[in-house]
Design brief:
The structure is a single chain. With about 290 residues, the protein is an alpha/beta fold. It has helices at about 5-10, 15-20, 25-40, 45-60, 85-95, 145-150, 155-165, 175-180, 225-240, 240-250, 270-290; strands at about 75, 100-105, 115, 120, 135-140, 165-175, 190, 205-210, 215, 220. It contains 11 helices and 10 strands. Helix 5 (about 85-95) runs parallel beside helix 9 (about 225-240) and helix 9 packs across helix 10 (about 240-250).
Length: about 290
């Protein structure tokens, strides 16, 4: 392994070392834990780096279900008004894959910051013409009015349709699936979207599935907004193995414990659900007209 790759892992934080050491054989782990429990707070920098290196080598030594490094090319499309968390959640997980190359694709021929629907500005890394020809993953985020406008952007839709042919996986989160549908990529496919827009998928010839993440061949679609984290972890597992995905999940401390059990229309209070659905009704009909 290259030195810079090890350095990148080490820079993720010494806190990873105890997590990764969990891959050691149980007897060895129990013996080492006894000494580390009280001494870990007093490690020198050199000792901490040694612990990190040993943990790294433990993972590298796995024979199955683990690929430490790779060269995946992942294109993540930006457009004005996209939902920031749709993009940032999966991007965090993809960026944790050592060696993976993430391309943030501008909707125009320049690299000016693109403003999300929530006001967060993201600076693209590549224009559409600079996007690699062959992709491991083509990713499209969703949004509200921004996605509605993107559906009317023929150049953007043509880019999605064209890149889909040369991508190993074509994916979206939330209403990003409506952009895939507009590009003609959902016909006969099982897919999902934000719960309030799920009924629109048959308009594209898709089979709607009320599920956090839906796989159908090379098509991967995620539900609304936060489903992008589950979506991203499943893709990491497919590319690098379940252990890699579990390690990133622990690094991110993704252990959902929401204060309210109101994250789906089936669980939400009917008053909350019905009124939110009413608020979103004009957007739903606008999407229907755009289809």
């Amino acid at each position: 392994m290259e030195r810079r790759q090890f350095t990148k892992l080490a820079l993720l934080g010494g806190s990873l070392a105890p997590f990764l050491s969990g891959c050691q054989p149980l007897a060895k782990r129990q013996a080492s834990n006894a000494g580390q429990t009280t001494a870990s707070a007093h490690l020198s920098k050199a000792e901490a780096e040694s612990v990190s290196r040993n943990a790294h080598e433990a993972l590298m030594g796995l024979k199955e279900d683990f690929k430490m490094t790779g060269e995946e090319h992942i294109a993540m499309l930006l457009y004005p008004g996209f939902a920031a968390l749709d993009l940032v959640g999966p991007q965090y997980l993809f960026a944790a894959m050592m060696g993976a190359k993430i391309h943030l694709i501008s909707p125009t021929d320049d690299l000016k910051p693109v403003t999300s629907g929530e006001g967060l500005k993201i600076v693209p890394t590549h224009t559409p013409s600079e996007c690699p020809e062959a992709l491991d993953i083509l990713f499209v985020p969703g949004g509200a009015n921004g996605t509605l406008e993107a559906m009317k952007n023929a150049k953007l839709i043509d880019f999605i349709a064209g890149k889909a042919d040369s991508s190993n996986y074509v994916s979206s989160v939330c209403t990003g699936s409506l952009l895939l549908g507009k590009a003609g990529l959902l016909k006969g496919k099982k897919a999902t979207s934000h719960w309030a827009m799920l009924e629109l998928l048959p308009e594209f010839g898709a089979i709607p599935v009320k599920q956090r993440v839906v796989w159908d061949g090379k098509l991967i679609t995620g539900g609304g907004v936060t489903a992008g984290i589950d979506f991203g972890l499943q893709i990491v597992a497919a590319l690098r193995g379940k252990t890699y995905a579990q390690t990133i999940q622990l690094q991110a401390e993704y252990d959902p414990a929401p204060p309210y059990d109101s994250g789906s229309p089936e669980k939400a209070d009917p008053f909350v659900r019905d009124n939110l659905k009413g608020i979103l009704a004009p957007l739903l009909e606008s999407f229907r007209l755009a289809i």
